Amino acid sequence: HKRVYPFASCWLTEKPRLMRKPWAMTNAFYARFGVGLPEDRASRADHIGTELLFVSLLAARQAAAGDSDEAANLERETERFLSLHLQTWVPDFCNKVVEDERSDYYAAFCELTAALLSAESAISN
Hints:
Layout lengths: L7 H5 L8 H12 L15 H17 L4 H31 L4 H21 L1
């Protein structure tokens, strides 16, 4: 069985290698919001879990901002992050995980994640 990598760099570049352009782009997006990873986690910036955690951080900031202009800006930035990052590779990743008979728990997680991304995409379009 081939390994299914949970990193954008492994899905969006020619060969499955870590810390490539998608990793750098994700880090740049995080930095715009004052988010950085600890040194021992820096290589995981484009990991599905890290990207989903960042979306949850933006959502929390948006909720705290109420009905302000900042909340509207955070909503736009969340949609932008989803379309530029998660939606470019996560659906394919989730499909591969679901197809892999070794991934019972992760298959359920991926089915939910893919459904949420699909719903979010439908709402923002």
